[in-house]
Amino acid sequence: MTARLALAAVVVIGLAGCTSAKPDPVPSATPVPSASIVESAEPSAEPTPTGEAEPQASPARSQAPRPPRITTPPIALNCTGSQPSDRPQAGGAGPLGTVKTTGNTTVALTFDDGPDPVNTPKVLDLLRQCGVKATFCVNGVKAQANPTLIRRIHNDGHTLCNHTWKHITQLGDYGVDLIRQDLTDTNNAIRAIVPDARVPYFRAPGGRWTADYLSVCQELGMTPTHWDVDTRDWESSRWGKGESMVNHIVGVVQGQTRPGSIVLMHDYQKPDTTTALHTALPWLKARFTLVALPRDGLPKP
Ligand SMILES: [Zn+2]
Questions:
Q1: Mean of the pLDDT values across residues 106-120?
Q2: Which of 243, 277, 275 has its CA nearest to residue 263?
Q3: Looking at residue 93, what DSSP letter applies?
Q4: How far does residue 206's CA lie from ligand 1's centre (Å)?
Q5: pLDDT digits (tens, 9 = 90+) for 203-253
Q6: If you measure from the C-alpha of residue 112 to the centroid of ligand 1, how many angstroms do you get, rounded to a whole number?
Q7: Cα torsion for 275, 143, 190, 188, to the nearest 10°?
Q8: Is 158 a catalytic residue?
Q9: Is 266 tagged catalytic?
Q10: Residues ≥6 apart with Cβ < 8 Å to 58
Q11: pTM summary value
């Protein structure tokens, strides 16, 4: 009897030791107060575009993401921090020599694939509350459909970036003539709404850069702009939706942003990104100088 109990105890201790020795395969999701998750419904007006896939992830970035570190209940924005003073430079290099950092200590938030009639106004509200300027990489067809939002992005002091007419991920393979037409149509759609706006940046859909993109960018006077931090906020197949995605986004932002980072997020059909900003924006602003990419273009390094 005693021997049997002792054996059982050994077995239990052995299993417990095995369990505790195993690495935690899933980032421990810090619960977010349910009151903070206010956006849950995704609009379904347009098919979800193919997300940005980081094509040349560094070995460090391809490892399992760090556990989320939500430190502040994302209820009300309480943004403290310095105002922009440093002017970003062209920092690199991303794929094919694209710009991937600001070249100094400033951090640039970029929002892709919009404008979105539901989420973009919320993102703009949060940026305004926090006193932060950002860069919006918009699609021409959505700009044309949401002129009020393009006007507000511009009037709020944010920077506009060309993200092609309708986010065809293979556009870079279609030759310079079609690329030039697509990018020109997109710039024209933006300028039809905000004639005084410059569009000095271009980002390839999915980050699928080609030499032809770079050639057309040079021709049209746009800086090909990649990113340094990819939140992968489109990858719901891996990170889920709702609280788990919010925690993932916050974890990436808090774990990977460094001085000079250009951070990739999406405002199009990504309500979890909007929710994550309630935590990420104050956190970032307390630690970095957040800037829009210069509206008159990047100076050379
Ligand atoms: Zn995109």
A1: 98
A2: 277
A3: -
A4: 5
A5: 999 999 999 999 999 999 999 999 999 999 999 999 999 999 999 999 999
A6: 5
A7: 150
A8: no
A9: yes
A10: none
A11: 0.74
